[in-house]
Amino acid sequence: MLVRYFGAAKAAAGLEEETLPAAGFSGTSGGATLQDLLEFLGARHVTAPDGTPR
């Protein structure tokens, strides 16, 4: 799964895009929800890079 970041999300993540395994963030066998993805990305990018506006 390709995740592209724009605007504030791009600044906070410190990158323009990243590729994730489709099943890498879902704890269920029935598939992941958007909420699952957002929680996964939030935990993955806990701290913003230096110079990122707060």
Order of helices and strands: EHEH
Proportion of residues in extended strands: 5-15%
Total DSSP helices: 2
The portion of residues assigned to helices is 25-40%
Record keyword descriptors for this entry:
single chain; 54 residues; alpha+beta; two-stranded antiparallel ribbon; 2 helices; 2 strands; 11% strand
Write the layout of secondary structure elements.
Layout: E1 2-4, H1 7-13, E2 17-19, H2 34-44
Short structural summary:
Helix content is 33%, strand content 11%. The chain has 54 residues and is an alpha+beta fold.
Can you characterise this structure?
By secondary structure, the chain is of the alpha+beta class. It is built from two helices and two strands. The protein has one domain (2-44). The model has no long low-confidence stretch (mean pLDDT 79).
